[in-house]
Amino acid sequence: MKSYKIALLPGDGIGRDVTDAAWAVLEKTARSSGFSLEAARFPWSCDYYLENGSMMPADGIDTLRSFDAILLGAVGWPRKVPDSVSLHGLLLPIRKAFVQYANIRPHKLLPGVQGPLRSQDFDILCIRENTEGEYSGAGGRVHQGTDGEVAVETSIFTRKGVERILRFGFEQARARRGKLSSVTKSNAQKYSMVFWDEITHRLSTEYPDVEVTSYHIDAMAARMVMAPESLDVVVASNLFGDILTDLGAAIQGGLGFAASANINPDRSAPSMFEPVHGSAPDIAHLGIANPIAAIWSGAMMLEHLGEAAAAGRIMAAIEATTARGIGAIPGKDKTDAITASVLSALD
Amino acid sequence: MKSYKIALLPGDGIGRDVTDAAWAVLEKTARSSGFSLEAARFPWSCDYYLENGSMMPADGIDTLRSFDAILLGAVGWPRKVPDSVSLHGLLLPIRKAFVQYANIRPHKLLPGVQGPLRSQDFDILCIRENTEGEYSGAGGRVHQGTDGEVAVETSIFTRKGVERILRFGFEQARARRGKLSSVTKSNAQKYSMVFWDEITHRLSTEYPDVEVTSYHIDAMAARMVMAPESLDVVVASNLFGDILTDLGAAIQGGLGFAASANINPDRSAPSMFEPVHGSAPDIAHLGIANPIAAIWSGAMMLEHLGEAAAAGRIMAAIEATTARGIGAIPGKDKTDAITASVLSALD
Ligand SMILES: CC(C)[C@H](C(=O)O)[C@@H](O)C(=O)O
Ligand SMILES: CC(C)[C@H](C(=O)O)[C@@H](O)C(=O)O
């Protein structure tokens, strides 16, 4: 029997609640699908930081490297540890160290879910660059604390980094409806974003079957609200992808429904799967977090591991659940009730 | 009789169409309000660039300095001149040279306008930093054209720049419903955005009557769609403000309804008023651009010049127009018909 080694990183706040839920669904699916999942759970989190002075052990990355995939809940608890410390100590280094350069986030409405838009008919796949750009972490502050203080933050884009994410976008568009939207802000950022546009333009000749359009980030944000049905695959930089995917989560009914995969397409290191939502400390451990985004992320993990049929079964169980109205309305159902419904729909 | 000298910069594409409309409304309003408006029209645009090799003359900024205000249509025509050239040659230098550090954009639904959201009940004032940050224009490219090419783009935030826009935000919040939302991405950008958050936090003690909340840009984008009614004044950096205000335009029914003011609060140089929309070359001079955003921007100009009653009359005329369904549905009415309706509602 095939077996996959999964590293569980529940992280902080509701990250723990939803990881438990996703894991229950994954285990049951595995049992009836003829493969097994073996989990190792790591307590790396803000609490861990308060005890140990770092978000993960010095050999944390090495430890994770031997796993087939990572399932993450959420990281961050600002009242305990500044986000700029917790995220740069756990989530962001994993994405970078394991070259998970493609962050994939599907945005569509699950049956029974009412989004905030009148328009209900869209199916967008956002692809976000996940390792460089505006999240390079380069910068500094001078004259700190004085009137003359200056803070700089430098976005770094490499040809390799931009080319590979755009190629990934073109491939995804080819496998879907053949439309790629590339998002920049080249009218205002004339180095990084003009560079991105140039590479988009050059690659487009290699994919004559893909219709590619460039948008500015502001226009794309408006389009996702005004005409989401016009979009297919959207590819964007680290920051722009971050913003657009929260917007995507919003139009699909809320962050409780937004799944994501941090993919290393070369499979030279494990990929990581996580709901788009954060740790939501205010509702942590109250049993009211919606686990659907985490369960959906688990399905994306199985798909990545080559268990597409099992992934499909989970998606069908999620859809059966929301179609019955369970988990479909933010705040209405308890985590356990939603999980139980997905589990029973798997039978 | 009071008289104001206005520099008209119609710019490109529909910028010309809507500036004409706004000017007609402004002139009529002035006549019946006991002041006069004197216009000088400057043809600075992409066409001007093609003829003269620059977007404006070398002494363009000096020329504009003697005016009481600037009314701008839109700048950019990518097929003629790259946006990164046209915008950096005209729009952005004016904002910076005249220290128009506060870009103000109101987002609410005009009567008769149906937004894309189910929620129709919001009144948001976005305040965008307009002179530095992610639009600093600092950066470069190395190893150009090779596999090893790297592009960097540096955001520069100064204490003075951040403090003054935040103060402006606090003051606006105080004059409205007392709620200020400050938008950053301090969990990922640990220099610039942490700096901004620190200054927000420090200033908040000076404004105990204002309730201030910090949001990450991704969460704010989602909130504008999920719960826009929860927002009052939103203050953000140059780039984040740009994105949020296009989103604001979207939820208020489209870019045809989004007005803006580039304000120099110290009045040491003219302020500039412009619709949020771009030049839309594909529909230029077809007579179908919606002039409401430009007319509304004209009202903001009168308000800034101290003619609040006249500004109010224009707003009432816009509202009477859209309430009758004219100009309320994107694409339905011609520029002239909408302008005529606003003009006649002024009587
Ligand atoms: C927590 C934060 C650093 C993270 C990001 O911006 O990447 C999150 O918002 C996400 O989208 O995964
Ligand atoms: C044209 C562009 C440079 C400009 C900006 O981003 O500032 C526009 O989008 C705006 O919002 O005024």
Please render the helix and strand layout as text.
The structure is a homodimer of 347-residue chains.
Chain A: E1 2-11, H1 14-31, E2 35-41, H2 46-52, H3 60-65, E3 69-74, H4 83-89, H5 91-97, E4 102-108, E5 123-129, E6 133-142, E7 150-158, H6 159-175, E8 179-184, H7 192-204, E9 211-216, H8 217-226, E10 233-236, H9 238-251, E11 259-263, E12 271-275, H10 292-304, H11 308-323, H12 335-345
Parallel strand pairs in A: 1-2, 1-3, 3-12, 5-10, 8-9, 8-10
Antiparallel strand pairs in A: 4-5, 4-11, 6-7, 11-12
Please tell me about this protein's structure.
By secondary structure, the first copy, chain A, is an alpha/beta fold. Chain A folds into two domains: 1-101 and 256-347, Isopropylmalate Dehydrogenase; 116-251, Isopropylmalate Dehydrogenase, CATH 3.40.718. In chain A, 40% of the residues lie in helices and 24% in strands. The first copy, chain A, is built from twelve helices and twelve strands. Chain A has helices at 14-31, 46-52, 60-65, 83-89, 91-97, 159-175, 192-204, 217-226, 238-251, 292-304, 308-323, 335-345; strands at 2-11, 35-41, 69-74, 102-108, 123-129, 133-142, 150-158, 179-184, 211-216, 233-236, 259-263, 271-275. In chain A, strands 2-1-3-12-11-4-5-10-8-9 form a ten-stranded mixed beta sheet, with helices on both faces. Chain A has a two-stranded antiparallel ribbon with strand order 6-7. In chain A, helix 7 links the parallel strand 8 (179-184) and strand 9. Chain A is globular and about 55 Å long. The model of chain A has no long low-confidence stretch (mean pLDDT 97). Chains A and B meet through helix 4, strand 6, strand 7, helix 7 and helix 8 of A and helix 4, strand 6, strand 7, helix 7 and helix 8 of B. Strand 7 of chain A pairs antiparallel with strand 7 of chain B, so a sheet runs across the interface. The complex binds 3-isopropylmalic acid (2 copies). One 3-isopropylmalic acid sits between chains B (76, 87, 242, 276) and A (187-188, 218). Chains A, B: Has multiple catalytic activities. Apart from catalyzing the oxidation of (+)-tartrate to oxaloglycolate, also converts meso-tartrate to D-glycerate and catalyzes the oxidative decarboxylation of D-malate to pyruvate. Chains A, B: Its EC number is 1.1.1.83, 1.1.1.93, 4.1.1.73. Chains A, B: It holds the Pfam family Iso_dh. Chains A, B: Belongs to the isocitrate and isopropylmalate dehydrogenases family. Chains A, B: One of its GO terms (molecular function) is tartrate dehydrogenase activity.
